[in-house]
Amino acid sequence: MNLTRRAVIDKALKSSVLCLGFSVGGVTLMLTPEQARAQRIVLRTLKPDQVKTLEALAEALVPGSVKLGVTHFIDHQISADPGECLLIAKYLQAPVPYAGFYGTGLKVAEGMAQRTAGKSLTSLDGAALESLIKQMSKPGTIVDGFPIFLFYLCLRSDAVDVVYGTPEGFEKLNVPYMQHILPPEKWDA
Amino acid sequence: MPKTLEAVDVAIVGAGAAGSVFAATLAEAGKSVVVLERGRDHKLTDLYSSQIWARRLKWAAPLVLEEGPDSVWPNFNSGHGVGGAAIHHYAVWPRYHPEDFRELTLYGRSLDWPFEYSELRPYYDQVQEDVGMAGDASKEPWRPPGAPYQLPPVLVTKHGEVLARGFAALKMRTAPLPMAVLTAPYKGRLPCIWDGWCDAGCPIGALANPLAVYLPRATKAGARIVPNAAVTRVLTDSTGKKATGVEYYTANGEAVVQPASVVVLCAFTIENARLMLNSGSSRHPNGLGNRNGLVGRYLMSHPAVSVSGLFNEDMQNALGATGGQLLCQDPFDKKSDPSGAFGSRQWEIGLALKPNDLLGIAMTRPDIFGKSLHDFMVDGARHMGSMVGVCEDEPLYENRVDRSTTTKDKYGMPVASIKYQISPNGRKLWATAAAEGVKIFKAAGAREAWTGPPGGQHIMGGTIIGNDPAKSVLNAVAQSHEVSNLFVGGPGVFPTSSSINSTFTAHAMALKSAKYIAGNWSAVKA
Question: What residues 28-67 of chain B have any CB closer than 8 A to a CB of chain A?
Fold first, then answer.
């Protein structure tokens, strides 16, 4: 293999832009969300049933986002100080704590599936899931008193972040990344 | 018992745009200056090229409650840490127009500033000289009198060229966007390389953020910047007529009193009002300097419309500055809107795009998901055009920052609670801009064009200046009518919003106030 200087830089670039500190056995590992998922790093906040719902939705919103670690990205960030949050929920003035916002959003989405299709969101076929998401994506939609459209915007954006917000994502779109300075390895200081 | 520090001449709260101007000006005038910043320290080398990372530059604490019905987007529009909001601002720096200062006099509505444009002009010119500005005044028929730009205009790519075609087809004029972004080396700073990372902060200092211009001057002159210092109150003497300093908390929770001869609040619009409201005493039962109940009132934000479209050309939309390439102020006349609404508008044309984030390609069409989203992203990355229409918001008494009655921060102080509604005129102007924007894109050859929902750009008002102590919080040099050694900096002092980006005017106003303090020191501190 002919490893050029550019390739070394590219590799470093791709692996460092979305590195988060994941705690394993008292040791902090610097991993991308994709690596954290591949290494089955234990989630801090999200419960298994929530993960199933989240991943069904996220993958339908932005294909490829589950493999790229959207679950670990969200879990990591909703477990931290809201002021330090890297999720777009912060910009969109989503209510804090974000763990509660995401937990309720997933619960409401599941309830919508139960009401409209009579089964769990994770059991919906492609067309039924698409129909459900279209309901969520209508601007201003409130369900059970919860701003499900806002939740949709947040989750879709989180998935966009992991798929398109990194140098690898830019490359998929043939957009030059043109970084000045890459983020440091440790993001959650 | 709080620890009491040695007294300084000037305590400045907030190390953003206004705070850095005050700090540099007063330190260079020989005053001992300390700048207390609630957020973390930032260096230019901390400004990483990532829209995800950029979110850590934005407002982080304490919580701002919004009661609606509209939002001023406090988390997105504010900054947190040394550099403040100006660290991630887009450096679009047109000047306010003369009529923006005289709306009540000229039109019988809204409010007047306590002075005319001509009085602020020297400060605009001085700030421009300090930071270095790019533009072409000869192509800006709308530009008020001012010193010529020192630097050639910002880059215009295919993106700007194509959109300019649409304006021309509708007989609307465009000019290079006046920007506080270097297009050539200036005073030891490097020029922009047009990579579109302005929102994440410019680490090469080509964009005039506080870390690049005024804070280095301030520290060189001896000012001390203290990050992680959460100011909770302005302290006053027994008469209530003099500020004696400020109280703040360190990162480890230690309470500290910083005595000062002069206190300057530069913690941005919402926090400045909150600090004054939270600094009440027996002499100031409604909050500091709030005898007339106007602290927090007349909160404003610019109703903004994002216009997006897809073209057949390769738009080169990744290149350039985030704030855009071209300007159009043809719709600026406050009495000419076809809806009959009062107020001005302007267009910022050809914003550099990234795939993700609030202003990114994906968010322009939030209804698209699944495989269609990828197709849209690929198309948009090559063919999308983007511009923003900025509209004037009228100062309404009802729009305000108040103290929450339900929620306190970790120091036991009520957090800010905001009631805000886009002014009726602002909403009409927005609707006009939205229709006009799509028409311009179509005229430019867009195969499809659309707009986003109303957004709020910039946050102004809340501590407005004026000549009449009964109708304003501060006087013409942003000095409290009631506490003579208390000053306020930032766009919170603006009585009107114009439709023009606020940072240049905030700099000019801060310089005006700082020069006044330096030139009248004995009277101010006595």
Answer: 45, 47-53, 55-56, 58, 60-61, 63, 66
